[in-house]
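Calcium/calmodulin-dependent protein kinase type IV: structure tokens wanted.
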Amino acid sequence: MILRRSWATRSAFRCAMVYGLMIHSVDSSQTLHFSIFFTPEGNNAYKKTRQQTIMRRILEEHLFQMHSGDQHTTVKSKASSSLDDADWLFRFTDSKPAAFKAQAGFDYTEGILRLQASTLFEYPKLVVWKHVDKVVYTLICEPLDNPLLASNFLTLFVHELSDHFRKAGNMVEEVSSRPDEIFTILNLMLPGGQLLFTNSNLHRHFKAQISQVLSQK
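Answer:
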């Protein structure tokens, strides 16, 4: 009965399938720690070029935030960055500039950008990303996906990885060398690429399941 209730709860909170997820360096568009794509297009012959394109766009936006001296809730202008005019940008409101936070010991930027349809993407994509301590966590979504739901998933996912891997040592090394454990976490938090509406009860349920499964490895 408990298992049935748990499955029913997860099904009730199920949402759309995302395009893919990447974990990569904030310092280079060439350093990828982990990736998974949930569509045939995401895994085709252009996969590496696609990954580097996404990382390059995020690196560009991260650098803009670090050097702009301010973050705005919504920005769309030629002066905002060197992204194409057709790309729109969302920067989460913050009372302190990213450069100030970096000097104060915080290493954190985040945002949402849009990739236009091209040879790499048949349809436009939303890219939701969070950078924490030199690592960027990126969720590539479809145009109609809920970006705030995606952002909430990334927040929970980053915390879960941090709780799990920091106990073992260097975060980057652990993420790169233990992809099977990331797959385990994703199988529960993002099953088959499906975004879930996650409330506090469901989050506690995920944490308990993740801890139980990973303790058996």
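The two ends are 27 Å apart (CA to CA). Residues 47-68 form the longest helix (22 residues).

Cheers.
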